[in-house]
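Convert to structure. Protein one:
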Amino acid sequence: MSKRNRLIVLCYIALCSQSLYAQTRLMGIEEMFSLADEKSTSLEAYNIGREAADEALKAAKAQRLPELNVSASVSYWGNGVLWDRDFGNGMKVDMPHFGNNFALEAQQVIYTGGAISSGIKQAELGRLLAELDWQKNRQEVRFLLAGNYLNLYKLDNQIQVLQKNLELTEQILADMIVRREQGTVLKNDITRYELQREQIKLQLAKVQDNRKILNHQLVTTLHLPEGTEIMPDTTLLEQQFVTLAENDWQKLAQDNNITLQQSQTAIRMNEQKVKQERSELLPHISLVAADHLDGPITIEVPVLNNNFNYWYVGVGVSFKISSLYKNNRKVKAARVNVRRAQEQYQLAQEQVENAVQAGYTNFLTAFTDLHTQENSVKLADENYSVTSNRYQNEMALLTDMLDASNMKISADLGLANARINVIYNYYKMKYITHTL
């Protein structure tokens, strides 16, 4: 077998294996969202962020627990030397050579000026921000998938329209060939229509390739088996997407938009930082208890080769005097950050309000476009029918027939796109309000 034939056989086997492993899966948009929640790599990354925030909160709460320290040591002591104050009359002092030390200390903070409580509150807000980040990413993933899903639906509709028009073109060509044999059609007329057929085939191939790309992206994001071909639910267009009034969409956005919730949380976070900085201006009070066992006793000369055990309990008070002239600047900076967070919240409100207004306007425009395209299809069909009859009766030129056919293709594709655009704008409104 020649190399060329072997290559052909290998290609054939590869194509056959792909067709064996490929599987078609009918999928609704809600099912796709559920799969994304389970398998999206992007969501999993944010989920790990939530876990990290949970651990940070536990660590902050652990600051309320008492501190317990234990230490032990064993040492070798060398002999000492005793001098006068002028370092004269040196005298050797024998030392016990074995030394030991054991200490057990406990401390329970009872007042820190609100530092621990503020730290816990910040950790709780950090946990909330991590949750909001996950929810926001979930909305973004869903909207991205919805866009690809609807584009897949749009491409399927385009494929159907192009295939239908390709069949119609083939039928016209067959009729023209018959008429050519009868001497009523010129060869040039057939050539021009064959050119249109090739253009339709090229357009169909491009659309099919785009579908493969989108399908691969969906399969990868949803972690489906390689070779899966996703088929959109054809009943989607039958659903009624009734739009709310603009004020209702604005209310939904104010209540549910995650960006606004994040901005509000940032304000609360900065307010807690102000409290934390102010806590440094206050004394810290704690209960302390300790037990020590030391040996030998070196405060006596000669040294006593004994173990000395002592314990104590009490109240400890600490205060950083330097905080009076250092932390006041930090408190002012923290208050400025609160004001900045408040301004950022106001800006976020304006941006969301503008996004809702623009999205709502585009949603209404999509309905207008749909009605226009429906009328265009009716007119294009009527024009094509009249032109076709006139052409059959030799009352119209081939150019008229080509124009009518192109108008019909354009109208059919426009209607398919308009239907999908209505659904897309509906999901876009749900994404803007973060109710997707």
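Protein two, convert as well:
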Amino acid sequence: MSNVRPIRNETDYDAALARVDYIMSTAVNDELRDELDVLSTLIEVYEDEHYPIDLPSPVEAIQFRMEQSNLSQADLVPYIGSRAKVSEVLSGKRTLTLKMIRALNTHLGIPAEVLIGDGNVADLQKPTREVQWDRFPIRELLKRGWLETNKQVAKSAEDLMAGLLQQAGGMQAVPQALYRKNDSTRQNASMDPYALQAWCLYVLAEARKQTLPATYSEGAIDQDFLRFLATLSRLSDGPKRAVEALAQKGIAVVYARHLPKTYLDGAAMRTKEQVPVIGLSLRFDRLDNFWFCLLHEIVHVWRHLKDEHDFFIDDLKLDPSDHSEDWSVEEEADLLAQEALIPSKKWSDADLLSRATPSRVMAFAQSVNVHPAIVAGRVRRETGNYRLLSQFVGTNEVRQHFEETS
């Protein structure tokens, strides 16, 4: 194990994150696995202290207990009163009564202080005076230069965020989908909505600065176009060319490093002017991860970015099949991206999982006209063995093609 040090400040924190990123993208032995466990614990302790998350809302707490205990809405009737009342409570149209709170606390074990609500979880769709501006990661945003400020004039968190909000299109730029669990989000349960809000606002602001050569229209994307993008992976500047090809379709792509407590790989959204935007965090700087994430988000733009689902946040480490909710859109995005990268018939015929030698991986990648990283990544994912073929996945070969504006 390397010399693991305590995390005392932002410099130590950044170094620990970089080390974890490196370990996650390399062949992990027992020594590195121990180091990863220790670093993860240190990072979690530091984030809990410096980036705390408030209690969930009452509705979020009820939904979590329903998922945890495999309960249906009908199972809540004895505690809330009727199917109609259950539906209204879960949709946010009806507040909990004291009788409901006592019943849910007694029979489902949901803490009373969560059900009562302490007003700490602000809804960013409400008037701006109700937003808890100091919950945004202001220090980190300033450090990255994502906020405009005059160092000679002290400003409040609200004043600092005002410029970014305006550039992104206003307070309504990011819908309420970020603050509730539904089928348009693929979010880690530990996600901080304020940090995620800030990341999305920055992505939207940067997208609105771009001048695209075309306007997006329905039908601009299809499976053939996805397959074309997959073949670009063979090129040394493939990621850059893919972004250019998307711009020709009227789709903006923005790279922005993930903020602490965001746990995301990518997002699909629209600007105020209805321009489709794909945001990429590139938290794992690997070619296999990049190409799958990019095509996954493109599928969201193509198939799912509608009025009822106008925002998609994706932590691709989460498997849709592990969730009881309707994640059909996520499953479809996974399947269509996977099919574009490696046609299922050819994958099945190759039977690489039985003997994934370097020579077979190289030969198969050439036969399907994609970078070997894509083949190696799928072998590693489907076998669950991330020590395999680490020399092929293109570690540290993506971010070099992208530049953050700050």
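The radius of gyration is 22 Å. Residues 10-50 form one domain.
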